[in-house]
Amino acid sequence: MNRTPDPTFGVQFSNEFGGNETSVMATVSIPLSGRVRRAASAEAGN
Question: Which pTM value belongs to this model?
Fold first, then answer.
């Protein structure tokens, strides 16, 4: 919990409706550190 988690990056391509629609999606996930998670869980418990 003392270490800060690494962010995750992703790219997704999809073809839908028989190739009539093509999409590109970029995602970024930044995990919360232990201190932030502890504060959020303490607040949710109140």
Answer: 0.43
